[in-house]
Amino acid sequence: MADYKSININVFGKKSVETNPDVIYWKKLGVPVFLREYGPVDYIDFSPIEPHHFAVTSSVRVQVYNPVTRLLYKNLSRFQKNAYGGSFRSDGKLLCAGGEEHEVKLFDVAAKTLLRVFKGHTGAVHRCYFTIDNTHVVSFSDDQTVTYWDIPSEQKILSFKEHSDYVRAGAVSPVSPDIILSGGYDNYVKMYDKRSESVVFNVNHGAPVESVLFLPTGGIFLSAGGTEIKVWNALQGGKLLAQFHNHHKTVTCLKLASRGSRILSGSLDRHVNVYDVATFKRLHTLDYSNAVLSLGISANDETLAVGMVDGLVSVSRREAALKPTKRERQKVVFKYGSDVVDPTVDVILNNEKQVKLPLYSNYLKKFEYSKALSMVLGKRTINKQPNLTVAVLKELIARKALHETIAGNNPKIVLSLLTFLIKNIGDYRFTRVLISVANIFLDVYEDNITSCGLEAVMLFQKLADKINEEVNITESLLALEGCINLVMSASNSGNIQMGTSAAVNTSATLTQSESGKDFVVQVN
Q1: Can you tell me whether residue 307 is helix, strand or coil?
Q2: pLDDT (tens digit, 9 = 90+) per residue, 46-57?
């Protein structure tokens, strides 16, 4: 004989948060180690070469750390004023950094030697990068210029002055040494071609630009400023492909991760968001203790460093799974490697332990429905586990026993049932079942509700008011749905130009409340 199967009370539980592989992947980052700097962390950059040292630019120095031990590897302190934007060359041997001294300095990382000093700017240099050919440096300055430098001769080759405000963001093309991208506080992002010595095109971001980023192909780039991140197609003259704003404060930095398939964005709202490059959908969010100014991630995603406004650098490392030792491998071979095995196997039937049923399930098993209902309508149960009460009510409806159970109960149970209905009939998890319970209750007590006492009559009136309130809410939501559809259709027909703006998804509309469809209780 099969064992009695208890009712499932988890059906009415709250839904768990939907997870995806990226959530699991990014949660595997270990407990962060915090490094203390003397000022806000302006920039973080990882060396492309293993072991992927990372440079932290803060105050009057650039410090290079070991990502495994999180200890200081090199200290580059040849600055008299604040340093900005220290970044590695593709071979990891050289590092360039700007600063308040209006200069760009070039260092040998291993020897800590100052190799070159590029002079010519009249304002602070906030960003500088090596081009893909490793023989030139591009700098972006508060003097509103973008300058192209030659490393061997230590001379300025070309300078662009196209911005009308500070230039605080920049990037170099990953496929061409001649293509440069700059972002300024004049809201514009400009692309330059060194060969023609002119601006190829410019786009208006709509807010002061804090960061720009090329995707690996070089044909698409991103700009961040204000609370928005915008995606542009460089091959189509700066056509806007998409825009998304998942931050509620200024976005300060952008980085690529997972070999170019993920985008990381940091913001003053203390969050780092992870996006899919293909869909630009947010996949995961990392939280930090203070406003995020900079971030960097190693090429293999093993180490994530995030710099904050209070001078803290959070360094999280993905811990590798421990490999079994030689002795453990030998044990496994000894255990399973023997070829002397008896082919006969004894069949053993284990006596399964009988599962102890909850008390309400025992009552249901014995068809003692009144006792089961009385138990789940207790104050502790209806306050702490309303899903259990609804599950038992649903089971009684399925057994066609609720009508007789309610009719045969004392006034105390009737009062408890009415109180439970008033409290939970508006909960979307329980509405469908509780409306059926309310209809059955009306069938039983519609004509003789006064037999249960004056308190029951008052609770019955409160239930009627509650149902009227839910109906009014449903009607208001339907009216709101109509207004939203009208506004969205008007914007689609006249105001959105698909060639110059990002596509807007208008397919998501409010759906009619399921509880609104199922209200069949008539209240006079």
Answers
A1: strand
A2: 999 998 999 999
